[in-house]
Amino acid sequence: MKTKDLAYVALFAAITAVLGLVPAVQIGPVPITAQTLGVMLAGSILGARRGFLALLLFLVLVAIGLPVLPGGGGGLAVFAGATAGYLISWPIGAFVVGLITERVWARYNLAWGVLANAVGGIVVVYAIGVPVLKAVTALPWTEALWFGAAVFIPGDLLKAVIAATIAVQVRRSYPVIERPQRAVAAR
């Protein structure tokens, strides 16, 4: 991995940490935070591999106890709580956002960006987060789906649009994801 790649990974782990400074809104066992915007941005700007590594680095920072979650949270205990599934899903979500972004790179626009962010940053995160929430809290499925997904949908869709808008601008001015290389015929 190049030094530039390491810098991007560290930068997006830091951006996700800074988004933790936005106060969380507690409406159930899982708070509404701005940090899922970091998941979407990392995938849509860095691509699959670097986006995954940025969020993995962020989780390492959480695990060693740095107060990078909203309200100054951090430490291994958060990986045994109601939010554990969501946290664990973040690198996977960033990977999926990045993978879709890379696949449509030649025609990437706002619509593709919103789709990539919705699939990776919302569907993947909920698909992992809600079952873990149910298992940890013993909530019935209806409550786990309500408090673990439904109440987040409007805000997460807004984050998907914001991340896609930023990614489109970054792609135009300073693309971090390289353009796919065409195979060169052997001479």
TrEMBL record:
Pfam families: BioY. InterPro entries: BioY. Belongs to the BioY family. It comes from Blastococcus jejuensis. It is found in: Cell membrane. The lineage of its organism: Bacteria, Bacillati, Actinomycetota, Actinomycetes, Geodermatophilales. Keywords: Cell membrane, Membrane, Transmembrane, Transmembrane helix, Transport. Signal peptide: none annotated. This is Biotin transporter. It is a multi-pass membrane protein. The keyword Transmembrane helix applies. The chain crosses the membrane at residues 6-30, 51-70, 76-100, 112-133, 145-170.
